[in-house]
Each structure stands twice: as C-alpha cells, then as structure tokens.
Design brief:
With 207 residues, the chain is an alpha+beta fold. It has one domain: Maf protein (Alpha-Beta Complex), CATH 3.90.950. It is built from five helices and ten strands; from the N terminus they run βαβββαββαββββαα. Strands 1, 4, 5, 6, 7, 8, 9 and 10 form an eight-stranded mixed β-sheet that branches. Strands 2-3 form a two-stranded antiparallel sheet. Strand 5 (73-83) and strand 6 form a beta hairpin. Helix 4 (181-187) crosses helix 5. It is globular, with a radius of gyration of 17 Å.
Length: 207
C-alpha cells in the first residue's frame, strides 16, 4: 500500500483530507493517508515563501526529505484567508496572524473589529489553498484553488475551524462553520485543490 503523508499536524484538516482523498487509488489500491506525526516525521518547517504555492512546496519538500518521508507521496498545503478591504490580509500569514499561539476566536474577533462599519459589498473575501506534492522520484506537482465569499458580522457555527465561522459562502448564505462536512468539502478551496491533485497523482501512476 502506497503511503501518502500530509505535512500537517492539524486534526481538523486531516479529517477533511481523509474524506476528500478516500477514493484515491494508486495502481488500483487504496492509499494509506498519514499525518507527519503518524509517519514519525518531526520537522520544524520555516514557511518563508512569498506565495501560497511557494510555502506549500517548501513544506512538502522538507517533509519528503526528512526521516520517515522517503519513498512516500508527500503532500502539503498552504491556505489562508484574503480580505479585499484589508489589502488581502491576513493572506499567507493567516496561520501566524497575531501570533501562532493566538486562538482563532481572537483572530476572528480582531478581523471583525477592523471591519466594523464596512458595508457588505466591501466585505468580499476568499479562501485560497495551494497543494504541493512531492513524488517518490522527486517530481513536484502543484494545484491552487479558491472559494469566494464575504466576511460576516459575527462568528457563526461550530463545524469548522480557523476562520470558518466568519466566512460566508454565497451559495448557502451560511458560514463555512455552519455547513456539514460534506457541503464544505464540495465547495471548499481545499476540496477543489485536493480533488485536482488527486487526479494528477492518479495520472502519474497510470503512466
């Protein structure tokens, strides 16, 4: 069984990834999807890229070259929230916004405060997700996807994580934290990017 290691320690993200990649087949067999910790990779990765794609590639390469990563298909993502009114902040610094140890409830509260009095038409935003994949032969694949929406006026919902409670999806007129996992995975930036990457991986192994 081919191992697929995803370079994250985020339990919520791993749950999404396993759902989205549940039907991935490599040479006809299902893949074993592991987090870095489950694969025994202990790596402090510095994300110093200038874009979501660059950061995803940095993480994927670091995990692929670490003990425990060799011979596996290694995936990594860099994702974040871009708010147009705030010059696309927090952007690539979404996870580090206000400090990595700051809760997302505090991060969300700060963004909502900065948007006080801003009308709905100017609260446009998007989630961005870049996925990088390092194959066992060293080849690097990338994908990027977005989901457009706007920033609400308060946190709503308990199903998501991160900035989900303040991001409103137009098709549902609900926050991504109010959607079911199935609804979210269908329209999310990570869902779109992972499905596109899954197709690339399957094509690679069909050669």
């Amino acid at each position: 069984m081919q191992k697929i290691i995803f370079a994250t320690g985020n339990a919520g993200k791993m749950r999404e990834i396993r759902m989205i990649l549940s039907d991935l087949r490599i040479q006809g067999s299902p893949a074993e999807i592991l987090s870095m910790k489950e694969a025994g990779i202990i790596e402090d990765i510095e994300e110093n890229g200038r874009s979501f794609v660059e950061n995803a590639v940095i993480k994927a390469k670091a995990a692929a070259n670490a003990p425990g990563g060799q011979g596996a298909v290694v995936l990594a993502d860099d994702s974040g929230l871009e708010i147009d009114y705030l010059n696309k902040e927090p952007g690539i610094y979404s996870a580090r916004y206000l400090g990595e140890d700051t809760s997302y409830h505090e991060k969300n509260g700060n963004l909502l405060k900065r948007l006080e009095g801003v009308p709905l038409k100017e609260r446009t935003a998007r989630f961005v997700c870049a996925i990088a994949c390092v194959l066992p032969d060293g080849q690097v694949l990338t994908e990027q996807a977005t989901v457009e929406g706007w920033i609400g006026y308060e946190e709503k919902g308990a199903n998501g994580f991160g900035y989900d409670p303040i991001f409103i999806v137009p098709a549902y007129e609900r926050s991504t934290a109010e959607l079911t996992e199935e609804e979210k995975n269908e329209i999310s930036h990570r869902g779109k990017a992972l499905r596109a990457m899954k197709e690339q991986i399957e094509r690679y192994y069909e050669k």
